[in-house]
Every structure is written in C-alpha cells, then in structure tokens.
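Exercise 7. Predict the structure of DUF7718 domain-containing protein from Candidatus Sungbacteria bacterium RIFCSPLOWO2_12_FULL_41_11.
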Amino acid sequence: MTKFVLTITPTDKIHVSFLQRKNKILKFSVHYTARVNKRWISVIRYDTAHKFWRIPHKHLFYIKKKPVIIFEKEQNYNTLFTKAYEDIKKNYQKYKENYLTNK
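Solution. The predicted structure, encoded as tokens:
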C-alpha cells in the first residue's frame, strides 16, 4: 500500500493511500482533512476501502449534519482515483466552506 500526505496549507491536508498492481489501482482512499478550532476534521473522502463494500463512493462531512455518502457512477478505479485527487486539490476551499455552513 502506498501512502502519502499532501500539505496544501498548514491547516489543509490531503491523505492519499492506494494499492496498485501492474498500473491498475485495486483500492484507494483520497481524504481531505482541515484544522478547525484546533482539531483535525474530515471534510470529504473518496474511497473503495470498506471490506464488504467496494463500490466507489465519496463521504461528505458537515459540522452539524450527518455525513452523506454518494456512490460514484465511474467504476474504473484508475480514472476515479485521479478524479478524486484532482477534485479535492482544486475544490478543497469549497468543500471546507460547505462543511462549516452545512451545505
């Protein structure tokens, strides 16, 4: 399993983990965390990492609402892994704002 953390700002990080064989992603997690009120919190996570539930999906977290799970139409893990990473890098500020305002 390959793992790394991309520090976007001192209070924003993307945690990436994936298992790859022969240029094919077998499972992955791309997880954006932010430091809010002196705590690191989950804001959004794309993954395939549940034991019995390998359907690609994303979790959207909110400060005062229950998390929302959205199943992805794209089933190609390589394509979705790239999409997830690029989406979070590009839109992390929007996701953080949505977390804080419960949108």
